[in-house]
Design a protein that fits this description.
Pfam families: Cloacin (PF03515). Strands 6, 8, 10, 11, 12, 16, 17 and 18 form an 8-stranded mixed sheet that branches. Strands 1-2-3-4-9 form a 5-stranded mixed sheet, with no helix packed on it. A 5-stranded mixed sheet has the order 5-7-15-14-13, with no helix packed on it. It has 416 residues and is an alpha+beta fold. A hairpin with a 5-residue loop joins strand 13 and strand 14.
Amino acid sequence: MGKNNSGGYGGSNLGGHTTDHGNGKSTSSDNRGDISHHTDSGGSKGDHGWGRGGDGSGGSSSSRGDAPENASRVNMAHAGIPVALYPVSGVLTVSLNWPTITAAVREAFIGLDTYLGNSLARTAPYAGRLLGVVVGSLLPGQIAPDPKFSYNLKDPLVDKDNPYSVTALPAELVTSVPVADIPKNTTVPARVLAQAVIDELAQTRPVTITPVKSTLVPVVKAQKTNKHNVYTAQVVPGMKPVRIHVSSYPDKSQVMPNSTPAVKQYLSHPDEGRSHHAILDFGRDHAPVYVSVTKQLKPEEEKKLAEKARKEWVADNSVGVIKVLADINTLIISTEKQMSAKQQELRNKQAELQDLSKELMVKNARDKKKREINTVINQLTADLSNIQKDLADAAENKILNEKNAGRTEKAGAKSG
């Protein structure tokens, strides 16, 4: 059995837990994904799926064939699931298997746009807020995420203090621009994004798929490298290009996504630390893919950010605040009515119980009296039986005495 320790990646508390498997191996998990760690004191080992070079140099090849070292695999068969990863030598590396997804799974994801649009039409969010679906809710609960590639956290090239998460979605879900026309544009209008938002009640910063308007997403040309199906693309400003491996391995665990995930209102994310978006253009090699990269924060940082977002929303959205207060007041009134009805129901049940208790007490009293009378009757019957027996015995004794007296008289006469 592994040993669980609260905390997060590389000793940083990210709201998850770390399982120690022994032999220097451990896995860190939270709602952003899993990462396997190797803490052996030796140098880098390619047979664990990682190498020293975050840019692909050094180390041995990954267990995924041509996948670059230190790649976190984004299973597009479970599209929409955020995958955690570390920069290695300043480079984020992911592996995508989107080309192998069945048409049914692809169409199911694209159909989420209609579901989100219908949800938005039914329940308009408060001013300054937005609707969202937590990306992890698209995956049926019984399906386990794929094992992730491993990192040696003692390797100084692994930036264990700055974890990221990446989410990939079909470009057809994100934009209405036909796939064939995407490469002709430098930006395309987005209808949904996978972006970090603020859950003010939980004081967390989840990544959600959110309907958006008037938002442009850059189309980024994926540059080929000297390795087969390995590309680079500039996604996060100020960082080295992301390294992408497009896998040709079919996935046997393809599942239909949840078509009706729970929709919730969230606060917009403050400017700092937002998610970064791009639609990757692979030219004629592969279909375009949307990716979202989000810097992960520690729980205490998320709480501060949630408080800041709440204050900004209150200051900038007086109409929304009034609506929230009105809805809260309506909810309080409705709850009070429900409580009043429940209290009356409780009083009625208590009265019924009291009546039943009285009836039971009367019945018990009657039963007790009946038992007492039966006891007296039984005793009288026993006494009567004893008296009758005594009388019978006395009568029998009288007869015997009379007979004995007669015999005595006769005997006396003879002797005279």
